[in-house]
Amino acid sequence: MKRSTGQDREKTRHWRPATQAVRGGTARSEWGETSEAIFLTSGYAYDCAADAAARFAGDQQGMTYSRLQNPTVEMLEQRIALMEGAEACRCQASGMAAMTAALLCQLEAGDHIVAGRAAFGSCRWLTDTLLPKFGIETTTVDARDPDLWKSAIRPETKLFFFETPANPTMDVVDLKAVCEIAKERDILTVVDNAFATSALQRPLEFGADIVAYSATKMMDGQGRVLAGAVCGSEDFIENTLLAFTRNTGPTLSAFNAWVVLKGLETLDLRIRRQSENALEVGRFLESRVPRINHPGLPSHPQHNLAMSQMDAAGPIFSFYLDGGRSQAHGLLDALELVDISNNIGDSRSLMTHPASTTHSGLSEEVRAEMGIEEGMLRINVGLEDPQDLIDDLDGALKAVGL
Ligand SMILES: *Cc1c(COP(=O)(O)O)cnc(C)c1O
Does residue 88 have its Cβ closer than 6 Å to ligand 1? Predict the structure, then answer.
């Protein structure tokens, strides 16, 4: 299916990512609007029956149905692709729709994949529970060690799937080393880049093949809508992914696409400021709690690796209290500014207890293997004045005896 809208991409491709975030993919209508238009339409009309036939045959540019294409969604897809440095991108209704599509569109019974063990709870459900139902086996590895990826490879291994930094332990995967191991064996790498986004980390530059997103997080960035995206080569996106999504229908709504387009305009600003705030809050917490997982702090065992592949460490990190669930819940309940919420990437500071929320669906055994202890808390540091956040955390720590 041919693309019908958009700028002359060849003329604008050289813009740097921060410029693409504001202008990439914009297609103006006859009205010359400065802000992108929201095209709330499910279908499209044709001038004549022959045009309809030509469009369905792929011989004429134009849209046919919003499960396949929509002008607002396409602007977002082009913008994300340009920011990522990818040939193509397709958006989905949520991050999980994106992950599911990115995996299922190219796997079949008998295939094997290797996945990072520290992962978003639903990503673990996909690999541990859904894929086996269709005869696809997964080996999960401690993603921090490239040798473990190598030794998990089987003749039928089709792809590697991981997040970096990973939720919620902030494990960092050596992108270059792991992608190289995959390339040697013609294995595709699928990277869930939700924590960093292309503003801080561009996995394709390290040799990854496919980058998948929850755009719900930093891309929207203001906690408004769910959205997802998959980026990769034109061939993969148009011939493999699109066949799956256009027929199964995890389509992003035009309105939600528009909200994310607006979010992307400020992504670079927000993620850099939130990363700075998270470092400040992290330094404070480091002096008060027994252990902290913050890749931006020199105490993180993979600090140097993280900083060699990311521009900044991002707004999210986790830390541990010795008093288990009761002390962790006690700290959450004593917060007055930071919200108790399992979302991340929001401009508001949010904190959650992974063991009883985001990762409660996993067995105790899997949580232990991933490093999710009962005393672990995860924070998303927002755009508030970091001193107010520190004051709030100070009060909450005192309330639980720390
Ligand atoms: C939130 C998240 C997802 C799922 O995205 P949704 O938009 O909530 O469906 C997947 N991976 C990571 C790393 C996430 O943080």
Answer: no
From CA 142, how far away is CA 368, in angstroms rounded? 12
As a whole number of angstroms, the distance between CA 314 and CA 320 comes to 19
Cα(11) to centroid(ligand 1), Å: 33
**Type and span of the H or E element at 320:** strand 316-320
Q: Which atom of ligand 1 is nearest to the CA of 98?
A: 9
Q: Distance between CA atoms of 315 and 246, rounded to whole angstroms?
A: 34
For residue 92 and ligand 1, the question of a CB distance below 6 A is answered with no
Domains and CATH numbers, the chain: 9-264 (3.40.640.10), 268-399 (3.90.1150.10)
Q: Regarding predicted confidence, which is higher, 121 or 9? A: 121
Rounded distance, CA 250 to CA 248, Å? 6
Nearest CA to ligand 1 atom 1: 214
Q: What is the pLDDT of residues 193-234, one digit of tens each?
A: 999 999 999 999 999 999 999 999 999 999 999 999 999 999
- Average pLDDT taken over every residue of the chain: 96
Quick check: CB of 194 below 6 Å from ligand 1?
A: yes
85-111 tens-digit pLDDT: 999 999 999 999 999 999 999 999 999
Tell me, using a 6 A CB cutoff, whether residue 218 lines ligand 1: no
Kindly tell me if the per-residue pLDDT of 6 is higher than 80.
no
CA distance 236 to 247: 16
Confidence of residue 190 (pLDDT cuts 50, 70, 90): very high
Is pTM beyond 0.85? Reply is: yes
CA of 14 to the centre of ligand 1 (A): 30
What's the pLDDT at 347?
Answer: 98
Map residue 238 onto helix, strand or coil: helix
Closest residue by CA, ligand 1 atom 7: 95
Q: Residue 220: CB within 6 Å of ligand 1?
A: no
Q: Is 228 a pocket residue for ligand 1 (Cβ < 6 Å)? A: yes
Secondary structure (DSSP) of 192-212: E-TTTHHHH--GGGGT-SEEE
